[in-house]
Amino acid sequence: MGELQRIRGFLDSVRRRVWFREALLWGGVGGASLLTVLLALALSAARVGPGGFWMPVTLGAGLGCVLVAATFGLWRPRRRLRTDPDAARMLGRLDPAWRRLSGDILSAVEFGEVPASPREALSDAPPAPPTSMPVTSVATTSLVLARAFQGTVAEAVRPFSAAGLVSLRPAAYGAGALAAALALVIGLSLTAPGMVGRGLGLLFHRPTLFEGSTVSSVPIIGDVRLTYEYPAYTGLPVRVVEGSTGDIVGVRGTRVRIETTPLHKSRRAALLTGDLGDGPEIPLRLSKGIMTAHLTLSESGNYRFWLLPLIGRAVREDRSHRIEVEADRPPHVEIQGPADRLELPTPRPIEVGYSASDDFGLGAVELVFRVDEAPEQRLPLKDAHGAKTAQGRTLWDPARDGSLPPGARIAYHVEARDQDGISGPKSGISRTLYVSIARPQESADDRLDRQREILERLTSDLADRLELSPGATGGGGGGQQERGRERGRGAGLALGLPQLEQRQAAFAAVHEAEEGHITLLGRLLDDDRREGILGKTLRNQLAAMAERLGRLLREERGILSRPSVGRAAQRSARQLATSLARAERPHEGHIAELEKDVLLLDDLIGRQRLEDLASIGRELTDSHKRLEDLLARYAATKDEALKRQLEREVRELRARIADLAQKIANLKTRNEVPDEWRNLPDTKTVAESARKLDDLLSQGDPGAMSQALSELGKDLRGLREMLDENAEGFGEGRFPQENRVISDLMKRIGDLEGDERALAGETQGLSDKQEAEIEKRLQGQMADWARKEAEKVERLRQALGELRTGDPESPLTEEVDRARESAKQLKRLLGERDLAEAKGEAERATQSLDRAGEHAVAAATASAARRNNTKNNKRGSDGSGAEAKAGELPESLAGARALAQEIADDVQKFLPRPEETLGPGERERARAQAERQSAIGERADDTAREAGRRLASIPGLERAQEDLRGASEQMRQAAEHLRKSEAKEASGAERNAAERLAKLRDNLQERSMGGGKQQRDPVRIPGADESSAPRAWRQELLDAMKEHAPEHFRDDVRRYYEELVK
Amino acid sequence: MLLGLAPLALAALASSPCLAAPAGGAGGAPAPLQSLRAPPSASAASAATAGSAPAAASGGNAQAVIRASKLGQAAEQNLDEWRFAEARTQIDELATKIPDSSEVAYLEGYARFLEGNYPGAVAELQKAVKASPADPTAREILALALAAGDAVKDHEEAHSTHFLVRYPAEDAVLVPYALEALESAYTALAEDLGFAAEMPIRIEFYRSPSDLAAVSSLSAAEVARTGTIALCKWARLMVTTPRALSFGYPWLDSINHELVHYAVSSLTRDRAPVWLQEGIAKFMERRWREPINGRLAPSMEHLLAKALRSGNLIGFEAMHPSMAKLPSAEDASLAFAEVATAIGYLHARGGMPALRATLASVLAGGDARVAVATAAGGGWPEFERGWKSYMVGLKLRTYPGFDLPTTHIRKAAALASRRKPSEDDALAVFKVTGPLRYLRLGNMMLKRNRLRAAVTEYEKGARVVATSTRAERGRDTNAAQWLFPVKLGRTYLALGDPDRALQSLASLQSAYPELPWPNLIAGQALLAKGDPAGAVAALRLSLATNPFDPAVHCTLADADSRLPAAARPAPEIIQREQRFCRELSDTP
Lengths: 1062, 588
Prior knowledge:
The complex is a heterodimer of chains A (1062) and B (588). With 1062 residues, chain A is of the alpha+beta class. In chain A, 62% of the residues lie in helices and 12% in strands.
């Protein structure tokens, strides 16, 4: 390398160093400026708010800073130190001590590249670089000197470095400025982070129309016209609201057309949604001065009008308009069954009532049930087709898809779906009811076959005894036989010993055979005591029969086993004849008893057979009704599920018809029922009609099916009438006295019921007035009070909800469930302002919790005992948390109970005293009604006594007396309430009494028409036909069912209550 | 004419004669025809009808004008009087004169209705009603034609020389016996009264009394109240099948009773009063099976004997205008007995010529009483005196504790089931109280083939009946008088003791000819004793009451085949009985 290169290298390094220093300095200064400007702008933006100008300002300021920094830190140094001479000069300026040397360096670089010889210098001289001094002439300058000079200069700068010459200190100012600016930013960010942050954000935020508009404190639009187009599933018509405030209320999916007029000419308009216009902007179409927008409601919110005038800034409304999306509530579903927990001896159809309501319209209503742990099954009940309410009753046979095993437990509820096509259908579910099958099914035929076998045996015994009777020679006319009888009495005296012995042996054989048959009867009764199939009255009748015949057989055995009769070898013919004559005397009584029993048993069997057939007839017509309903629904919906159900039901119907045909054939074969009541239909026609319907189902033509179903219905009705007539006629013919008694009592009970209903009607009038008066008095206080009580009820429900009772089948759980139900009802009743009922419900909750507390204490005691035993056996093995929790249960129950009691007391205190709510005249009327009620009650008592006397022995009506007494008790309560001017309570009690009477009358009616309910008769909802009043009554019954009956009577008591709730 | 069974005399209760005879004043003319009829004896009425034509015309009722035309009126009258040939000629003539007129449609429809062509009648009458909706006559005949068509829509038909029978398929067993009896009666009536039918006489069997009510002008309630079982009206015999009654009923006598009405109505152009109609019908109803003998049924004999003793006879005046107006069923029955004996007296006086003369006189428009008295050879007072003496001379007897046979219509369900009547069914109409409980016990034993035990029970029952008073037995148990003997007879027979069976039934056969079982069991007993001829006679009587019991046919086939060759019926008759025996045994 030459000297000049060394000098140039030195200058390059100095130049770079200077550039670097300047860059640092101005970078720092620029950064500091930028930060400061940004901060200032951010603070300003935070104060001023969003604006469209912030971003350009910010960007401009930022760019300015950058440009300044770049100019001074990059461009200007480069420009100033563009050539070596510039660098050399700059050295002189950097340090005065270098001023001379810088001149030398300048000179040296100006000499440029010195050639090694002049020729070389002349020929090869490259064009002088721009930075080199022009070489005037190699010839005029000593090349040597120049080289030497350059060498000297090169030597002179060698010890120096650019770093030593160019200090970076000035760059520190830039860094300091930057640091200061950063400190400022950080400091402010820490002290007012929101402001700084928001300000910074605003600097780079593109403002919305909302933000970018000015707020108008005066109206900017005229009247608003809203047009609601509701979703199709709601079935609501288009609604137009003129002169609206602009508030929009509608169900999700509603399409709203908004029309209004801007008060100022505008070139653009929009709806700004969201509190801060943060929702979507909806453009408004402007046409002929009318602004129109469409929006579809999806969620609640609000909106404002935004207008861009022809001149000036956009304006928006100050106050927003409300958008409220109404909730489409899920359907509310109620279920009614014969009982919340129904236990049946055998599977039977159950009547299920349901009601469902929805705010916009219901879709399908289904019965959902689950047998034990099997998958859930669904049975369509109704397709409401958008109706707001749907209710109905159906007979549901849990065993329709197969037999139910003993002990099967079926949980069922009703589920209804709405038709929400926007958010998707929502379901409402009723509470769950349960039915369980207690015992194995024994068919009516089996039961009757056993009775029939006994009848055959007893008839055979009777025939044997008749043929053994003295003078029973098989003919001879009345007179002759009587004479024969007389001869026989004197009797055997004329017979020889062998004949007497033969006769005695025949006697013994008859006796023995009959004993065997009575044992058979006893076995049937024993079996029935376990299985409870015969029904109490029939069982009693058979038991009495067995008892009477057993007594006669014991007496006879006594005579037959006497020594004179028994030991043939030691007696004379005379002794034997005398003894036989002695045995024959009670024999006639025995025959009379057998005659009576045989006829009775024959009648009982005949009645059961005919009732069994009649019940199938009723079943068939019921099935037909179901089919009609299903077919109508299928025709309307063409729902394949319905078709499948139709097919299933038709198959079942056909099977049942076949069953009936078989039973009819058996009846004919067995000859059990006299011809008069054996007017049996030709089931072939009916079966053929059912088959035709089945065939048509597969073709799927509803019209033809409807016609076929109609024909089938006609056939089935005829069939049922015939079967009913047989059963009814048999009852009248064979149990005429019973029918007469029943008819007489039915009339009396009907009179009582009529009087009671009339009285209940009057009392209801009084009650309505009283309610109105109470309402009037409590007006103003009610809302606050009800709110407070509702809170208490909520607390109660919460407390009850938190209770953990363990076994779902335990009495404790049942009581707590009942209390929960009461609490639920309580909430409803308070909502409905039905305070009298609410008080009753609160009291019922209290009672349930009392009983639950008892059960809990008993359970805790038992648990403690078990724990002690466990400790003894296995010390310290467990002290589980579960037991600790069980120990806490009584306490929790007591807390809930206190709350329930408090609510009851509150209601009591809040309600005005009943006598204060009736005027003097009304109080007088109440007293008069009380007197009338007492008189009706006395008549009911008289009728109860008579029923006890006359109906006690009639199957199925043994409890009529108790029922009447129950009604009478209700009447007494009603009278008492009336005396206390408690009209509402009195009215309820009166209705209950009337319903009990109606129920009893229905039972009597059924009995008089041929007998009690059959095993396959549906289990009906008690009182469902009359009113809703029986809830209290049913509750009372269910409570009563919980009372412990003596062990011996437990089954009977249970069955009694089962019958009642049916 | 109608026939019931409560007792048989009740046949005339609520009756309207086959051919109403307004001139005679007894009974009432069939309502649909009354307004148009112009009987010869009521020429004034005829004139009034004719005279009313202009008025009708002025009222715009053209049809009335047309119908009032002599030809139409004559045709209608001929139809009313069952002179079908003349009516047909007139209708045809009218049809040529005024073809397609509603008058012709009406007359054609009416004629077809009387001929038994119900669909044809309905078609024509509908045309007439359409043309003249306000005309009640056409509407009423249309209603009757519709009802008649409906009642026989699934009936089958059988013919004989003079008769056409329409019957439900399940009643096929009735047909041969009915046709035999009717032809036999027809021959007798032709011989006795000179009766000849213009066209085959139709007899229609209906399944129930309600069907009978539907096709007649009687209401169902009237039919039920009066026990009406058969009618002769609109040129046909309308009969309820014996299947509809628990005991059956003397159905062959009944259809012949109606046939006599048919004959008398035809011979007098429906001018005989009710008492004469019923007297002749009752007197001659058994003519199909026996010569005229004037014998009364025991029930009538019993009532008439009592009335004669007490002097409480019912005067002929009291029978006017209808026997249905009599206060009780017993009175009606007595009235029947009286008119039957009155005709019996007439017959005793002058034989069949006297009856023919009477009918001829009535046809000529003479008063029935005068005609009867004249035929008997004197005036009415003499006839009355002679008749009473005749009754006394009959030495009628009473039957202590007699159970008057009543009509036991089976329940609707039993009819609907189309089950044939059975003995059990029949006995079940009685309430099982008092002695009848032994009947039931005996039946239970009998069903279980414990014959001796059954006898013991029946004998106990019979003893109780014998020792109890009527009041003690109660009304329902009066039947015990015959129930126990019947059952004992059956059981003795089963025990192989036909003599005792016959002994048990001896009194019943004569006292209760309306019951099928005494004759059936007697027939079986006689056959068992080797008396097939006696058996056949008894069995035929049983069959004439209830032909649905297979035992009758089985035993009859057996008895017929055991008859001596000379008396033995044709093999096809025996085969027929065997067939019925099989078929009825196989059906419920």
